[in-house]
Amino acid sequence: MDYLLLGVLCAVSPTTFASPSDEVRPPDWDLSQDGSLIIHRSARVAWPRCVEGMQWSGQRCTGKALWLSHAEALARVKARQEAEGVAWRLPHMKELQQLAYQNARPTATGQTLLPSIGQGWSWTATTTINIRSFNAYDYNNIQRGVNGQNMNQIKFLHGWAVNTATAEAQGDVLKRSKLLVRLVRPLAE
Fold first, then answer.
1. Fold of 26-186
2. Degrees (nearest 5) of the Cα angle 16, 20, 25?
3. Is the pTM of this model over 0.85?
């Protein structure tokens, strides 16, 4: 009988007596109090819930999404920085992919982070630094007019984009293409 009582105490004690380090911490991803920003605590950044051109109404994104080229997206970042005095920037590819992955999981309040409107291909600040080797005898290179001198120049015409609905990333998107723009900024102290 003493053994049975000891077994019950051992089984109960780990869950009954929690240490201070076991306290519930806030979720890593959550929404601001007004719901207009997505907060990523460990990365210390905040994202608007809506793409550029749209505003959070308290329930959903309203307005018309802007479809911009990469150069127009960078100009939009600069204009917003100057107008608001906030260090807005285009996100890096991995950051935007994390946001897209996290969007599939509901927040503590049961909401998704990104409204369905405004999901799709969005520009990133990530650039391609890998330079492919050039094969002068490859028929595809000859057919496209690519040579060793202009191959590296062609890469500068492409940028990275992420589909926020699927988290898929592509590094060969022409920078003149019109895509959505989603910005990020440092988390205010």
1. Mannose-Binding Protein A; Chain A (3.10.100)
2. 100
3. no
